[in-house]
Amino acid sequence: MTSPFVTVPELAVLLDSPAAPVVLDSSCVLHPAKFDGDYRRDSGRPRWLEAHISGSQHVDVPSQFSDEAATLHYSHPTPQAIADELARIGIGETDAVVVYDTTGGLFAARLWYLLRWIGVDVRVLDGGLAAWSAAGQPTLIGEEPAPAPTAPWTPATTLDAWITKDELVDRSESDARPLVCGLPAGSFAGSDPTRYARRGRIPGSVNVSSRDLFAADGTVKDDPALRAAYAAEGVTGAEEVLLYCGGGISASANALTLVELDITAVRIYDGSLEEWSADDSLPLALG
User: Fold this and answer.
1) H-helix or E-strand containing 50?
2) Is 177 among the domain residues?
3) CA–CA separation, 279 vs 75, rounded Å?
4) By C-alpha distance, which of 100, 194, 105, 170 is closest to 181?
5) Phi, psi of 266 (to 5 degrees)
6) pLDDT at position 162 over 90
7) Residue 259 lies in a domain
8) Are 129 and 208 contained in the same domain?
9) pLDDT band at residue 173 using 50, 70 and 90 as cut-offs
């Protein structure tokens, strides 16, 4: 199986080839909550202007690849809406895409998950721009010409990528599928402030923090370390893996690392704790 990651040396070779991929910088700054209900984010475009891979373009996942008509921050748009936005920024149905970010890798994982959902050939640059720069690869500063749009296209297929709140509410206690929260341990336990209505976790879930699956330099940990982190919480890939976090972003990094392990039967609860915690009838566990 092809890894969902591409290394810096691999990308450097690809960018010099006739079939060079389109490179997207999906940086977005999501600030840690200082108090319950504290939700703040900033565009990552200023970071892209400061330094980016030559020929890349910045995309804003919250506005370009989320359903802005929805009440939740990152609800996935329709497959056709994603394809239409890709065509608008010059990406055709058969184009290969590499995504990265400068903000911890989570938004790159989210964009990867959305594009993979509709059948795009997409990979994530391991370590992001930091790894690219550390390897001595060149970066550019400032604006670049916007690519011309491509002809509109329709996704040929979609993966089974999402699970709803109602499905989780109706989930029986005997359901063997693991429900994994990708938030840090403090958020899982409810000891840290939350961006959302109430603290806690969905009862019956386990915690595999997506941030702990990456090394200090932003590169993904090796497969044995990833497998051990999941196995410690009973996640072996024998059953479909259900993922959630605060709003579907960290969970996408869990999906990315599971696919790296060839565990592809994964679905994300897109509403995650933003939706779950807003419904006072639904329980949350603490501690």
Assistant:
1) helix 45-50
2) yes
3) 17
4) 194
5) -130, 145
6) yes
7) yes
8) no
9) confident
